[in-house]
Amino acid sequence: MKAENWQQLGLKPFEYEKIVKSLGREPTWTELGMFSVLWSEHCAYKHSRKLLKTLPTQGERVLIGPGENAGVVDLGDGLAVVMKIESHNHPIAVEPYQGAATGVGGIVRDIMAMGARPVALLDSLRFGPLEEARNRFIFGGTVGGIAGYGNCLGIPTVGGEVYFEEAYSLNPLCNVLCVGVIEKDKVKRGRAAGEGNAVILIGNTTGRDGIHGCTFASEELGEDTEEKRPNIQVGDPFTEKLLIEACLELVDSGAVVGMTDMGAAGITSSCAEAAARAGMGIEIDVAKVPLREEGMTPYEIMLSESQERMLIIAEKGKEDQVKAICDKWGLRSAQIGVVTADGMFRVRERGTIVAEVPAKLLAEEAPIYTPEARKPAYLDEVGHLDPGEVSPIGDAAECLRILLRTPDLASKEYVYRQYDHMVRTDTIVLPGADAAVLRVKGSRKGFAVCTDGNGRHCYLDPRSGAISAVAEAARNVCCVGAKPVAVTNCLNFGNPEKPEVFWQFSQVIEGMAEACLKLGTPVIGGNVSFYNETSGHAVYPTPVIGMLGIIQDTSAVCTPEFKLEGDIILLLGPIAPPQEGAWLGGSEYLRAVHRMVKGKPARVDLELEKRLQAMLLEAIGKGLLKSAHDISDGGLAVALAECCFGSPAHEMIGASVVLATPGVRRRDELLFGEAPARVIVSADPSDFGRLKALAEKHDVPLTLLGKVGGDHLDIAIAEGETKTLIHERVEELRSLWQGAIECLLK
Amino acid sequence: MRFGVVIFPGSNCDSDCYHALKDVMGLEAEYIWHKSTDIRGFDAIILPGGFSYGDYLRAGAIARFSPVMKAVEKFARGGGLVLGICNGFQILLEAGLLPGAMMRNDCLQFRCHYVEVKVENAETPFTGECSPGQILRIPIAHGEGNYFAEPRVLEELKRNQQIVLRYHGSNPNGSVDNIAAVINREGNVMGMMPHPERCCEGVLGGTDGKFIFQSMMKYIGWSLPLNPATQGRCGSRES
Amino acid sequence: MEFLVKVEVTLKKTVADPQGQAVYSALRDMGFEGTREVRVGKLIEVRVEGEDREHARSLVDEMCRRLLANPVIEDYRLEVGVDG
Description:
The structure holds three protein chains of three kinds.
Chain A: H1 3-8, H2 13-23, H3 29-38, H4 41-44, H5 49-52, E1 62-64, E2 71-76, E3 79-87, H6 89-94, H7 96-113, E4 117-127, H8 133-153, E5 157-164, E6 173-183, E7 198-203, H9 213-216, H10 237-253, E8 256-261, H11 266-278, E9 281-285, H12 298-303, E10 309-314, H13 319-328, E11 333-340, E12 344-349, E13 352-358, H14 359-364, H15 378-382, H16 396-405, H17 413-416, E14 427-429, E15 436-439, E16 446-452, H18 455-460, H19 462-479, E17 483-492, H20 499-519, E18 523-529, E19 533-534, E20 537-538, E21 542-551, E22 568-572, H21 588-592, H22 606-621, E23 627-630, H23 635-644, E24 655-659, H24 667-672, E25 679-683, H25 688-698, E26 702-708, E27 712-719, E28 721-729, H26 730-745
Parallel strand pairs in A: 4-5, 9-12, 17-18, 24-27
Antiparallel strand pairs in A: 1-2, 2-3, 3-6, 4-6, 7-10, 7-11, 8-10, 9-11, 12-13, 14-15, 15-16, 16-21, 17-21, 19-20, 22-25, 22-26, 23-25, 24-26, 27-28
Helix pairs in contact in A: 7-8, 7-10, 8-10, 10-13, 19-20, 19-22, 22-25
Chain B: E1 2-7, H1 14-24, E2 28-33, E3 44-47, H2 67-77, E4 81-85, H3 87-94, E5 101-103, E6 111-119, E7 135-142, E8 146-148, H4 151-159, E9 163-168, E10 179-183, E11 189-192, H5 209-223
Parallel strand pairs in B: 1-2, 1-3, 3-4, 4-11
Antiparallel strand pairs in B: 5-8, 6-7, 6-9, 9-10, 10-11
Chain C: E1 2-11, H1 18-29, E2 41-49, H2 53-68, E3 74-82
Antiparallel strand pairs in C: 1-2, 1-3
């Protein structure tokens, strides 16, 4: 075969040689297409697999770790939670609405494939600054697409994050996380077990859409990207909704041996992976696949990425039962083949064999690379901050106003009010809190889930940035009263063939492994997205952590907002930096007020983090806390303001705080410095003694800051005499914070 | 007292309504498949929210031709209580069981949040447990809740006290005259955009939705002894 | 015979069209100052078996009245062509 044939499919010489050697012959055109998609970075994790193996994946609650369509965690009471996050970055850069919509569709099918009902969605999004029209278009389209698809499915979108940085202008990120709930003994796997069992395709017809989508996702975006539109599929949420209901009924029917999603690489990946996982083979006939367009070749049918399709492995003799359930829901179903014992993935077009390759070779034996890693030169320039470079602030209140108005810190209500976050009536902590909380009807149990990732921190110090992301995600679920138990991760990077990018990646993996191990939150699955890079400009290294926390009793959850006049406000964790400037590096304050992206972000003390989280959980469990809120971007002052802003259930209220920090020179660092392991809580004054004892028991610093009440946020500093730094009406601060994003869009 | 919750392909608040009625209010509730043509024996029918048939042509346009809708129309004509919530409201409009039409929200975006609605008519089977002018806090979640009726129809609605709920404070979708819920002339079929089933439990942040379901319970309970067959009597209170 | 009937559904003139309004503002902002009005509607193509053009028209007209358009807020226009 001519070299340009396999080169244009993105295969490397070494890879082509491996195919020829393994098959003992030259591949057919169809086979070559199949290898090119399954051996793409997107499907095969060629550059990341080795390092991903170093992540901790075991834990007492982990039922199924990485390798299946989604990870599964034991919730207790015979229930399990299924969770997975996935990227859909390239598609939103080209067609934001459909790109985001089909991103939601894909991750939802991963959860369905495990047999579970999808019950919650979260979206971690990153765009370029809203000042630019193109970024506003991508932002609006992405949010609209998530809403359009997710709302129709009746799965609440309960949380996530949105950040805006120049680094994401050309390569916006859209990571979607889905959570499902299932009875433990009903969990399905994507396995084609049992010779003679039926291979059934259900859902939408197969068209020419999305051919080579995963090859697309495994390349840098170029100047001609806009013309790659044919790669983008149009979502059909109505069919997906019917698929959800039909799949759940199929699971209950007992007719199903295995199920798998048909996303990237369509029939090729779903069949090959299902066969390989079970150590079996599959034989299909492409003539039996219901088509949307006439004249499709076997190559096109095998590579189509038409959405809203699932592959069902049904027990032999129960094919009619599957068909009856699909008919009831008005869905197409077609038996396209059978499970065989010979380990081969054989594709026929009526009588003729058009492809015949070992399933394991396709699905599991793609070459693995160990790329070169080199510390990037930019770190010499920006990796260090001399506090003297940062001029001290004059007007603290003005700084607070600037920070509350930056779109990264501003209220994301503009986004989440477009998402149906209440459908299914299980969302008991609504968006806007540190983590979303869902109850499980018929049980006292519930779970909390959040996503966290700070690309700027990882850019400045990838290893420590990754540790921070895991620590913050765990802290966030603790703040609502949930015990963190498992992580799903989405790792967004530039081109891994560049040593600097691969260095960032390896540092992030190291940090994540350390933090997950220490905090007892194994990684149960996830996704790597490389090549988020255009014309040499890569995104910030952006690991996004999806954290799952378990709640034993949903009557004891906690929320961030202050509740009652007279409650005391306490700080858990350190009040001042260990040395001057330690909390300034990479902070939002530095970026928004001083226009600097510099320094090393504050390091996480994982021991302290663990103790703090244990204390929080114990305090919430004992009902000692009225509120708890993580101090994150924007530091103490921003966190205090957020605590004052109320929630759908509670009116806004003021707070009065005095900082007694002798010897600390920089007020800006006290107010706006960012450091991990810090939480603001409020409590009834009569509980102060018990909280103090608890803090001592867990060896966590505790400081009484002030009281809830009034209609102002007052922050003063005690330096001999008490000096007011901030005295602002909560209502005014809140309206700045609430309207900031909408204001930028006008 | 039996409540029926209709499932159309694409309904997604069916199980929420069922849960609110059965597990929270302690009523007898059953699902009704969209292909059913016989709904005898029910005291009230709920058309739940969601995206029936994907709302692909217009919200509710296709669902209104489901086999079950013929039975619902008959049930309504016989005086049976029918409550359409959100997509259910849209279906009732498309079916002509309620006057007017629904358009896209004037902000052109989906909106999901709590709203305040004012009870304009507390004399209906759906609001009998409310006091006149009472403010209820109930969530909305829709992209097409911009209720429209021609001026002539609007006048009629006002004249006959058919506007049951109005948005209080800000109007989230641009609906004419701030309308959030309307009832038919006979007073037994109501459509409302807010979701009462989403606020029947304190843990969800509100319980005002209970007023709607309690009103229906009271009304049915009141009419039951008059006519055990229930049908044909439910609307009599209004006439 | 098979006919291709194009159905144009638009909001009635008397009904506010926020989508059209948004497009209008965007076009003006983009510098198309001569834009006077924008109305957004939808195009539905129906291929239908009919005895002749008139028959096909009347069939699709009925479809419009019953399903494709909502007479409370929408107007529609038909264009019958021969399917080729």
